[in-house]
């Protein structure tokens, strides 16, 4: 017994910097991304998109295109089979955009699909698409909220009616008017595109008329399955969506876009599997973007620097059909202690596709405004930027009055300041030089909410000492495969190499997608619930087995940790799950379970997790749940050339249990890089007359290159949170990016004495700011 | 991309004759610009004539200066000791351009024939006088942030050559050797190679249809030996210049004896600044001199809504580059 136990020694790998389990498959090319998958008979689809942004199609001449070799069909609005329902007719439509092109001759945005060519080769389909001649009756488009023709309106609700367009508490205007210190500023955010390395792609495979498999670049296979079922009028069970690997998504693959259903409809019509990937140019008009927006923020404070009012408004561009806009107010609402607060959204319809969530939607641009204004206030009051944040530290969530489930922001400030050497910063702007360069230091806070979520998982433990664990989650490339392998390993007491974790398939137990930072927390919880089911079953076997040291024990007296069952009162008495399973003669045992993340978990486990058992004030669902962090950075500004270089970065975060130090650090590093991109260079230009992008490729749309990025130091402060899920895990997909742009802008202010309020802070804007008096 | 036929030329005459006989043909060397534009359907060639086998190679010092075969690759030339030592601006302009992969592919002859990065030119959905003469120029009222402020016309404000190398070559009085289908060679100073847009923005150089660039020769001068290429851009690498400057100075006893100055990404073509050079010669090599001279560089500039910043940025870039080569 003892030997056996040692051989399968508890690995205790959660938290360890385990190498990616999918690493070898990725570097050897064995990992197939959606557009790399082919099934026998696969043919290729290519979209032809609209050159105009508004008007109607008057004619489509496909005669030349049809002469290309191997053309199977050229679909237009005239011959593409109609879906059973359009998104507008679907009550439970789960996507940002509700408009489906190619249903009629109307053009509503530039880059809208107008034809889909299917051919036996990609080259022929591509060339045929180029040869299609579409004639249009063009109308003058509206390009954005700042177009003189645009009309701003009050949407009342935003995001498909899910969120309020007005949020008010207290009396913010009155409090602002009476404040000892006032600050008002307007912040502009450019259009950003997610620009993942892997393009959006669909491979649609029909088996007969009523069975469909779709290999999709999807952050959420369940969402794609559900929307397809509704669009096609088919039972969900008849549709399988598979996404084994994703080459980045940042949100754009977490919504449903036209190319998917158009490919599915075309595949059914040609009776062949059809593969379609968007070109890089089409990625700019095919899968949403972060909308162009402008925020006005008024903040009032006491002479001691305590906030008394936050009055926030946001103007943004939206599509002709949807009221999608990021909810920037979320971060204004709760980051600091402030009794009086309001956010109001105003939108303008323009001829653009619907924008969509992009990494830290709302929090990223919202924190740029909030944390820049806080820096200004600190400067106005002659306070250290850290000090003003401490004076406004929120000991509870002022947006709902609830206590935090956990909050380590103070520790993040302290540790970050220490690592960075914040105390050595010269508070006076424009004083530090390095040769011809101006040097500045800035900081900002980060926060991201825990969005309540739930999912299921299945665990199958084999007597030979390996296990298969399954959940229909996705891995954006950030490490879901790896961290869930670790969670499973510890749950079963197996080494990680004995775990096969499967994800990315609607045939697997339903799990949430990768979005809103919910995947890690939810799937970890689900696996633990499924593992508990296995434990219960094996414990029952053991207590009934004469050969077990637990024979005749009460199952409720048995605990399981790292794969070993033992008596709670006599931990020496016990054996491994595998030992008991092995004796049973059963080859394997399966368990399944539902796991929750956030408020749902807290409610379900109320009273069970010691921490809140005896606290009357802490009702189920009684906690506000957020992760927090702090960024510190150094920049060098060239006052003659206008260039900004980030030269140092420290990010310290409190995000509950860290499942894998290596992947978590990488993700937070990536968040800082993504934020630096938005801060310094990412900007899609939409022509004001044509409402069409002019830099829709990765040469024109700049994302950071290695040379732009300094060493980024990331640390996590230890944080235990018993309320959010089984393992105390908080999601970290978005947190690392929140506040980054403000930290850079604050450092630029410290370097130059100039405040840049328009992102990205490109050299032209820096020179313009430097021309003005400080 | 349209279907095309492909031939590999073994002799220069074979290549140039094929080009002369087929108006839809194009030479291909590295292909880093050509294939890109063909994929965008901005260029549609019926035939590609591969010139990579032709003997236009070699980097050697001649009595006229450094002669670089047109088929040498950017990376090789940029790293070559003769180039680094005698023409640092040329080396820097090459190594600050594009990415390592592109530099390994792209040829010197192809580099000087790069076409504009103007977004309207590169997207066939837009009108563009350069791509389709007579259709109009949306850049005038649109995305002109990275377009030209000197030498433009009402038909086109593109920085027709968007790259780096030609800026250094223009500053240093390089000469291009061209060879036509008759096998006849001619020498064209690069300062006379590029054409301003005027009313014919589609005509970008003096290169005839059957001519191939076979070599670039850069005269060896004291100013070339003390030269520099400074590039300002939106990100630290792999981006076109917002403004760039190639400068060379010969300074004796604190006085400027000779100066070579050119600007990139501000002119419709790489912009030689003769007036700045004149203002520098005979003056003390001080920042004040450089500042005063730089003021002359942008005279007559015609900024648009989004590119007025280039005036100040270009002046500052010149001053910085001159100060650095003069070590002041």
What does this entry look like structurally?
- The complex is a heterodimer of chains A (774) and B (328).
- Chain A is of the alpha+beta class.
- Chain A is 25% helix and 25% strand.
- Chain A has a 7-stranded mixed β-sheet, with helices on both faces. In chain A, strands 7, 10, 11, 16, 17, 18 and 31 form a 7-stranded mixed β-sheet that branches.
- Chain A is globular.
- The N terminus of chain A is likely disordered.
- By secondary structure, chain B is an alpha+beta fold.
- Chain B has 12 helices and 12 strands.
- In chain B, the strands form 3 sheets. In chain B, strands 4-5-8-6-7 form a 5-stranded antiparallel β-sheet.
- At the A-B interface, helix 4 and helix 18 of A face helix 12 of B.
C-alpha termini separation of chain A? 76 Å
The tally of beta strands of chain A, per DSSP, is 31
Count of discrete alpha- or pi-helical segments spanning 4 or more residues of chain B: 12
Note the beta-strand portion of chain A: 15-25%
Q: How big a fraction of the residues of chain B is strand? A: 15-25%
Total DSSP helices of chain A: 18
* Helical coverage of chain A, percent range: 25-40%
In the sheet with the most strands of chain A, the strands line up as 3-5-1-15-12-13-14
Helix content of chain B: 25-40%
Distance between the termini of chain B: 52 Å
CATH superfamily of the largest domain in chain A: Aldehyde oxidase/xanthine dehydrogenase, molybdopterin binding domain
Radius of gyration based on Cα positions of chain A: 27 Å
Quaternary status: heterodimer
Shape of chain B: globular
Mean pLDDT of chain A: 95
Q: Tell me the major beta sheet of chain A.
A: 7 strands, mixed
Radius of gyration of chain B: 19 Å
Instruction: Determine the structural class of chain A based on helices, strands and strand pairing.
Output: alpha+beta
Largest sheet entry of chain B: 5 strands, antiparallel
């Amino acid at each position: 017994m003892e030997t056996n136990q040692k051989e399968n020694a508890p690995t205790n790998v959660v938290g360890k910097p385990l190498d990616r389990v999918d690493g070898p498959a990725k570097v050897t090319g064995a990992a197939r991304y959606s557009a790399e998958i082919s099934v026998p008979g696969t043919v290729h689809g290519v979209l032809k998109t609209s050159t105009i942004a508004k008007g109607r199609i008057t004619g489509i001449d496909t005669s030349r295109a049809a002469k290309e070799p191997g053309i199977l069909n050229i679909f237009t609005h005239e011959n593409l089979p109609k879906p059973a329902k359009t998104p507008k007719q679907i009550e439970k439509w789960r996507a940002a955009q509700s408009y489906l092109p190619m249903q009629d001759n109307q053009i509503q945005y530039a880059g809208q699909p107008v034809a889909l060519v299917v051919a036996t080769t990609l080259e022929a389909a591509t060339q045929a698409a180029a040869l299609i001649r579409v004639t249009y009756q063009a109308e003058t488009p509206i390009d954005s909220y700042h177009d003189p023709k645009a009309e701003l309106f009050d949407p009342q609700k935003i995001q498909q009616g899910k969120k309020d367009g007005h949020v008010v508490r207290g009396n913010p205007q009155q409090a602002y008017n009476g404040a000892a210190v006032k600050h008002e500023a307007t912040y502009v955010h450019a259009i950003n595109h997610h620009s993942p390395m892997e393009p959006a792609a669909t491979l649609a495979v029909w088996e007969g008329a009523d069975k469909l498999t779709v290999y999709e670049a999807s952050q959420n296979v369940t969402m794609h399955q559900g929307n397809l079922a509704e669009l096609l009028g088919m039972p969900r069970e008849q549709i399988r969506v598979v996404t084994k690997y994703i080459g980045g998504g940042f949100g754009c693959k977490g919504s449903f876009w036209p190319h998917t259903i158009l490919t599915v409809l075309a595949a059914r019509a040609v009776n062949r599997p059809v593969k379609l990937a968007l070109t890089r140019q089409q990625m700019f008009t095919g899968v949403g973007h972060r909308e162009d927006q402008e925020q006005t923020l008024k903040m009032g404070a006491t002479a001691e620097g305590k906030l008394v009012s936050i009055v926030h408004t946001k103007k943004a561009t939206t599509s002709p059909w949807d009221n999608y806009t990021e909810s920037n107010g979320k971060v204004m609402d709760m980051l600091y202690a402030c009794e009086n607060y309001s956010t109001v959204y105003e939108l303008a319809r323009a001829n653009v596709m619907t924008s969509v969530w992009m990494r830290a939607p709302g929090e990223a641009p919202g924190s740029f405004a909030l944390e820049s204004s806080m820096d200004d206030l600190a400067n106005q009051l002659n306070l250290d930027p850290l000090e003003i944040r401490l004076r406004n530290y929120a000991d509870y969530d002022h947006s709902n009055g609830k206590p935090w489930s956990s909050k380590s922001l103070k520790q993040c400030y302290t540790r970050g300041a220490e690592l960075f050497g914040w105390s050595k910063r010269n508070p006076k702007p424009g004083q530090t030089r390095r040769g011809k360069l101006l040097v500045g230091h800035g900081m900002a806070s980060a926060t991201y909410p825990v969005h309540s979520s739930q999912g299921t998982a299945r665990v199958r433990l084999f007597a030979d000492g390996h296990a298969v664990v399954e959940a229909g989650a996705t891995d954006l490339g950030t490490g879901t495969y790896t961290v869930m392998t670790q969670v499973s390993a510890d749950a079963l007491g197996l080494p990680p190499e004995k775990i096969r974790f499967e994800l990315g398939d609607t045939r697997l137990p339903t799990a949430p997608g990768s979005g809103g930072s919910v995947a890690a927390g939810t799937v970890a919880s689900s696996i633990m619930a499924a593992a508990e089911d296995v434990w219960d079953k094996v414990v029952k076997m053991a207590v009934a087995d004469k050969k077990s040291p637990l024979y005749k024990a009460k199952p409720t007296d048995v605990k399981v940790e790292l794969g070993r069952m033992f008596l709670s009162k006599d931990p020496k008495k016990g054996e491994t799950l595998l030992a008991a399973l092995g004796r049973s003669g059963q080859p394997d045992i399966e368990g399944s379970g539902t796991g929750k993340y956030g408020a749902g978990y807290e409610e379900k486990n109320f009273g069970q997790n010691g921490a809140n058992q005896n606290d009357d004030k802490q009702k189920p669902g009684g906690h506000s749940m957020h992760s927090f962090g702090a960024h510190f950075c150094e920049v060098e500004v060239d006052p003659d050339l206008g260039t900004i270089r980030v030269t140092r970065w420290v990010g310290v975060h409190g995000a509950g249990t860290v499942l894998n130090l290596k992947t978590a650090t990488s993700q937070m590093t990536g968040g800082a890089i993504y934020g630096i991109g938005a801060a310094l260079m990412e900007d899609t230009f939409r022509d004001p007359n044509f409402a069409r992008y002019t830099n829709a490729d990765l040469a024109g749309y700049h994302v950071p290159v290695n040379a732009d990025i300094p060493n980024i130091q990331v640390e996590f402060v230890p944080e235990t949170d018993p309320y959010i899920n089984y393992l105390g895990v908080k999601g970290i997909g978005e947190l690392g990016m929140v506040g980054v742009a403000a930290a850079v802008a604050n450092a630029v202010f410290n370097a130059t004495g100039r405040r840049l309020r328009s992102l990205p802070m490109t050299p032209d804007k820096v020179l313009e700011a430097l021309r003005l008096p400080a | 991309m349209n279907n095309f036929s492909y031939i590999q030329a073994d002799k220069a005459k074979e290549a140039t004759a094929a080009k002369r006989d087929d108006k839809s043909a194009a030479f291909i060397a590295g292909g880093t610009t050509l294939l890109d534009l063909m994929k965008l359907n901005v260029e549609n060639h019926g035939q590609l004539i591969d010139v990579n086998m032709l003997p236009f190679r070699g980097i050697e010092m001649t009595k006229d200066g450094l002669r670089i075969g047109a088929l040498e690759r950017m990376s090789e030339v940029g790293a070559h000791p003769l180039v680094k030592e005698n023409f640092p601006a040329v080396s820097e302009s090459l190594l600050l351009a594009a990415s390592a992969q592109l530099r390994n592919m792209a040829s010197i002859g192809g580099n000087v024939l790069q076409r504009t990065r103007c977004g309207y030119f590169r997207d066939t959905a837009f009108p563009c006088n350069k791509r389709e003469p007579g259709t109009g120029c949306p850049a005038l009222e649109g995305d002109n942030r990275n377009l030209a402020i000197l030498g433009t016309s009402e038909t086109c404000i593109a920085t027709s050559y968007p790259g780096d190398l030609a800026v250094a070559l223009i500053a240093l009085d390089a000469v291009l050797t061209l060879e036509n289908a008759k096998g006849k060679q001619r020498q064209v100073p690069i300062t006379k190679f590029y054409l301003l847009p005027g009313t014919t923005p589609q005509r970008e150089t003096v290169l005839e249809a059957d001519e191939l660039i076979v070599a670039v020769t850069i005269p060896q001068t004291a100013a070339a030996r003390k030269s520099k290429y400074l590039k300002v851009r939106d990100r630290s690498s792999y981006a076109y210049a917002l403004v760039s400057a190639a400068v060379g100075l010969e300074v004796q006893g604190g006085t400027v004896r000779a100066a070579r100055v050119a600007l990139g990404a501000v002119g419709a073509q790489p912009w030689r600044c003769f007036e700045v050079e004149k203002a520098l010669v005979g003056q003390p090599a001080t920042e004040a001199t450089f500042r005063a001279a730089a003021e002359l560089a942008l005279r007559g500039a015609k900024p648009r809504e989004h590119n007025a910043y280039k005036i100040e940025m270009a002046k500052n870039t010149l001053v910085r580059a001159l100060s650095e080569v003069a070590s002041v």
